[in-house]
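The instructor's notes for this session suggest beginning with a concrete chain rather than abstract definitions. Hand out the sequence below and ask the class to guess, before any prediction is shown, which regions might be ordered.
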Amino acid sequence: MLSPAMDMIFGKNKKEQPEPLRAKIRGELPTWLHGTLLRNGPGMHTIGETTYNHWFDGLALLHSFTIQNGEVHYRSKYLRSDTYNSNIEANRIVVSEFGTMAYPDPCKNIFSKAFSYLSHTIPDFTDNCLINIMKCGEDFYATTETNYIWKINAETLESLEKVDYRNYAAINVATSHPHYDAQGNVLNMGTSIVDKGKTKYLVFKIPSTIPEKKKKKNNLLRHLEVICSIPSRSLLNPSYYHSFGVTENYIIFLEQPFKLDILKMATAYIRGTNWASCITFHEEDKTYIHIIDRKTKRTLLNKFYADPMVIFHHVNAYEEDGHIVFDVISYKDHSLYQLFYLANLNQYFEQNSKLTSIPSLKRFVVPLQVDKDAEIGENLVKLESTTATALKEKDDQVYCQSEELYEGIELPRINYAYNGKKYRYIYAAEVQWNPIPTKIVKFDILTKSSLKWGEEHCWPAEPVFVPAPDAQEEDDGIILSVIVSTDPKKSPFLLILDAKQFTELARASVDAEIHLDLHGLFIPSVESSEEQEDIVASTLI
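After discussion, reveal the predicted structure:
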């Protein structure tokens, strides 16, 4: 049984708001702000008499705030995935999620084809795309971490088409945090599990436009290109990863000791355990840092590694004076994922406990050239701006130690115009002691100072930076964040902050049920296509 506050945020199924609902505005919206904040996250955890075990398992609920002509309108709609339709039709959970194993009727056993040969032992994962939104050309997709994505109508939130990555590449799982290059091409990573006797990590690209000579294949995904593959260090125990980093010339992939056990996943249904129990943190292992040259499509020869850690979110990366600098949010173990089981969350809040592993913003630096004449134990980092080190060891190995920049933040965002470039500001949610964000933070990497916004009983979602049209500096713009409250008398609202001063400009309150979401993006609405391209490039994640 969840506490009232917990039930309001995590337990209670949220009602859809498919038609635009006008928000009540307090303060003044920037006159230049026109567009839609499109978000994704779990909104339904109970179907009939069955309940998901984990908060991340809930059915995907898309919602949006459209800002136009000084008005804000809200709408929400559940993703009509096959998972959603099957569950609703059966009036119970019949499709498994990572934290909840479901048991359909034998005559409707969706796992019946999952256990033939080793190369086919990965079950047909859920298409409940509840994590993020991806822009692909002119289209938008709801995404999760399986091989499925769902094309959606960004305006009406209608579900349009289910897409399987496996139709275009041997990808069993993929990240929900793609990157976008200067041309708008999508860069992403996925894992190919036991394909032709190998398990490997694939870096792939989806073009933003289709070349004239190939117009007959008018689906952008048909032009998906695998640009690099990295062999997994273990055939049956590949690394879990949630994101990766990019610079102008390189891709950064961390093969962390948070690993999938493929054999356990293949037999999870038979053993009566969920897939999450098949992901284990190996504290005795290292974190391997793979640097892929985007031009040669090969990894650097030197072997870079760091201490064992769990990383969900990369923040940014860039090149400086022969080094790659990359910033991540790091954990000492995987306890955060365990904490989001609903039973654990309820116990946590009842006992007012503290996090056992507080997220830490860490900076790593990798030298692009390793001096063969350098002595064993020598620090190869020559940047004066950081205390991060890279110590030369035997057999071309380099041990990377981080600089700790800030403790207690998650869901990091930046001005995406600075992605892959040297930058200064990070916008994130504060999670010092509580697994749920209580404040929004702006952290200045240069001065190591921070600004914060917070309000009693308010839980902010991931902050999204939107640049001003005439921006001259990195933080010229606004921050958007969806705020939910544990106070039943307080309506949820869209918060608009001045990104430079971090002061509230306005809030748009909505008389509707709004869920605590995960990720999303801002879609600008401007007349000038050139201006639109500039703003899109600055707001994508």
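Then share the key points. Residues 29-46+59-539 form one domain. The chain has one domain: 29-46+59-539.
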